[in-house]
Amino acid sequence: MTLISLKGVSKSYVMGPTRLAALKQIDLTIESGEFVAIMGASGSGKSTLLHILGLLDVPETGIYQLGDDNISTLSDEALADLRNQKLGFVFQQFHLLSGINALDNVQMPRVYSLRGGDDKNDAIAKLTAVGLKDRVHHLPNELSGGERQRVAIARALINDPILVLADEPTGNLDTKSEEEIMAILESLNAEGITIVMVTHEMEIAARAKRIITMRDGNILSDVVKSKSVKKSPQIVSPPTPIKTMFVAQIWEDIRQAFRSIGVNKTRSFLSMLGIFIGVGAVITMLALGTGATNAIKKDLSTLGSNLLIVRSGASHNQGVSMGVGSGTELSILDSARLQKLPTVKTVSAIVSGRAQVVNGNKNWNTQVQGVEPSYANIHYESIPQGRFFNADENSQRERVAIIGLTVATQLFGTESPLGRTIKINRNSFRVIGLLPAKGFSMGRDGDDQIIIPIHTAMYRLLGSDHIGSLEVEIKSEDLLAISKTTITNTLKKAYRIPADNEDFLDIRDLSEIQKAIKSTVGTMSALLGAVAAISLIVGGIGIMNIMLVSVAERTREIGIRKALGATKKSIQSQFLVEAIILTLLGGILGIILGEGISQILKLFTGWPMQIGLNSVIVATVFPTLIGLFFGYYPARQAARLNTIDALRYE
Ligand code: ADP
Ligand code: MG
User: Fold this and answer.
1) What is the DSSP letter of 72?
2) 556-575: buried (b, 16+ CB within 10 Å) or exposed (e) per residue?
3) Ligand 1 neighbourhood includes 40 CB (under 6 angstroms)
4) Ligand 1 pocket, 235 CB below 6 A?
5) Which ligand is nearest to the CA of 22?
6) Which of the chain's ends, N or C, has fewer CB atoms near its CB within 10 Å?
7) Is the CB of 171 under 6 A from ligand 1?
8) CB of 217 sitting under 6 A from ligand 1
9) Going by CA atoms, what residue is nearest to atom 17 of ligand 1?
């Protein structure tokens, strides 16, 4: 049965201005079961012929019939499949993949084939057949030349080919290895496998049953020395798609990606930096957003949205006294003035300052707030231990204090502070209550404070006759706007301030404070967003760059894979998967970075920052898209490489 039939096949290479004919109108027929040696001087076209026979290259003119197929009618996929299923290659340079052991090298063609079966045991069987049973786990660089070539033969045999093509298989070997390889080829031929072998050594060629001699792209002579044993030609068992090729290949792609990342750890890490920072910024941005929202919600639920904070415009206009405004300070009498207004529910005047507090040898610096008894109604549902001060204690300027948890711990440790005496700026105060725990809020420890009667604070502690601010609780939220106007008018009248003076008072409601926080958070988010966008783009370009380097470095590997049956698609998917794994690893590190930054921000703001599910999705989806987008071009470059050129690449 005719296995190979060439009619008028030619091939030429363009070299600068001239065209060099490597094969000139070759006619050749090879029967199934033959053992053919192709001889000839260097440059006579032997390899070119072998590449065409092996479907690694296509003829320029003429017809190549392999078995039942006219190969010019076949697609890239079909050719790759034929290489994978029916052909086996043995090269002078062995062409093993260096990073993986003999077993994995031999199994490699199975990645690109639909055949079911036990890849590992099949590979071990083939390695045993070439006498390498105890070299299964050796890397190529741990094997001698002869052993490497035997691994290559085992690989060529893994899918039970009908045709083995060998290009100078013993060219790099010593005499003993040469003998071993030839013995293997002879025994394969004896089993019925057709062998076409290029060699320039007469003794090697003499082992074949037919010798074809070439010169300058022509067949010079064709001598049949001995008849082939007529064995029934090997039938390729039809593919049994037990495993799906897709899953097997993606799995192999992932393994390969981790191998190549593992080989270039530093380089891979550096190429991930952009994605790492970008994803970190995105995660922080999301955590900050939810943190701020939750903080605002929490404040709203504790303080209510009906609270107005009234300050004199002189000292508090935008935090800076600009010399505008009346210079009028508010007094304790204003509290009573505002309490009379119909829309007002509760008012408390407030003064505050920092003070040194002492219990025995324990010292603490904290914020002291002088307030009216009504303050408790605005802020506290109840006092967990002890009580708040009453109106009498306030007007009598009694030295009583309600202290926060942090102060209590600092001054008394685990002991109960109730009924104990502390010194605030050298004045003795009796502790009558413990404030409800508030935790951190807006970057401040809400429990690091002491509340005392405002009269005590003003006349005994601060020696001041004006107050800092007024907290005014309005009866309902929709009365806020009108209340602001009536408060302003009332106080202007009291102080005889002209009606057109805009700067006399500074009245804020909580929604304004929240607006300010939101806008700050918005600015920070926008900044982080910009950092993220730039980092991700730059990171993507970094990935693309490193993938291009990787493709260039692994050109030979790509050639080998294609020779073993990889299609363009499978090469493309291999490099895409590698790009995505790189970006995903960057994303995972980015989550850790984002979590770290969020925890630090949490310390400063006290906001409940959390890395939510959305962040994890972002950290997976974004890098995948970036890997796909920026990996596409390098992967396509890899897929488009010409197999022969890739194999020859030094
Ligand atoms: P052999 O294997 O017999 O030594 P080849 O088949 O490799 O010879 O090459 C035949 C001729 O074609 C040589 O002259 C070689 O220089 C030329 N040739 C082979 N491949 C290429 C190529 N990719 N580009 C240009 N010329 C080539
Ligand atoms: Mg050659």
Assistant:
1) G
2) bbbbbbbbbbbbbebbbbbb
3) yes
4) no
5) 1
6) C
7) no
8) no
9) 22
Cα(324)–Cα(314) distance, rounded to whole angstroms?
7
Cα–chain-centroid distance for residue 646? Answer: 31
| CA 168 from centroid of its chain's CA atoms | 46
The upper half-sphere exposure of residue 288, i.e. CA atoms within 13 Å in the direction of its Cβ, equals 25
Q: How far is the CA of 20 from the centre of ligand 1 (A)?
A: 9
170 CA → ligand 2 middle, Å: 13
pLDDT band at residue 510 under the 50/70/90 scheme: confident
Residue 237 pLDDT > 60: no
CATH T-level assignment (fold) for domain 2-239: Rossmann fold (3.40.50)
Q: Whose CA is nearest to atom 10 of ligand 1?
A: 45
Both structure tokens of 587: 């994303």
Any idea which residue has 């549902």 for tokens?
Answer: 381
- CB of 38 within 6 A of ligand 1: the answer is no
Q: What single-letter DSSP state applies at residue 216?
A: T
H/E element, 481: helix 480-495
pTM of the model: 0.73
Question: N- to C-terminal Cα distance for the chain?
Answer: 39
DSSP for 154-172? HHHHTT--SEEEEESTTTT
What is the spatial distance between Cα 252 and Cα 250, in angstroms, rounded to a whole number? 5
pLDDT band at 51 (very low <50, low <70, confident <90, very high): very high
Tell me the two tokens of residue 80: 């790759």
Ligand 1 pocket, 274 CB below 6 A?
Answer: no
| Cα–ligand 2 centroid distance for 186 (angstroms) | 22
10 lines ligand 1 (CB under 6 A): no
Q: How many residues does the chain have?
A: 650
User: How many other C-beta atoms are found inside a 10 Å radius of the C-beta of residue 104?
Assistant: 23
Evaluate the CA torsion angle 559, 187, 144, 40 in order and state its sign: negative
- Which amino acid makes up residue 538? V
Displacement of CA 601 from its chain's centroid (Å): 23
Q: For atom 14 of ligand 1, which residue has the closest CA?
A: 43
* Diameter of the chain measured on Cα atoms: 129
How far apart CA 50 and CA 194 sit, in angstroms, is 13
Q: With the C-alpha atoms ordered 369, 375, 379, 384, is the resulting torsion angle positive or negative?
A: positive
Q: In whole angstroms, what separates CA 339 from the centre of its chain?
A: 59
Q: For residue 21, how far is its CA from the centre of ligand 1 (angstroms)? A: 9
> What are the beta bridge partners of residue 11?
23
State whether the beta carbon of 22 lies less than 6 angstroms from ligand 1: yes
Confidence of residue 115 (pLDDT cuts 50, 70, 90): low
Confidence band, pLDDT 50/70/90 cuts, at residue 363: very high
pLDDT at position 16: 85
Q: Where are the domains of the chain?
A: 2-239, 251-298+516-648, 329-496
* CB neighbour list of residue 107: distance below 8 Å, 6 or more residues apart: 119, 120, 122, 123, 158
Most confident of 62-76, 134-148, 239-253, 461-475: 134-148
Q: At 62, phi and psi to the nearest 5?
A: 90, 180
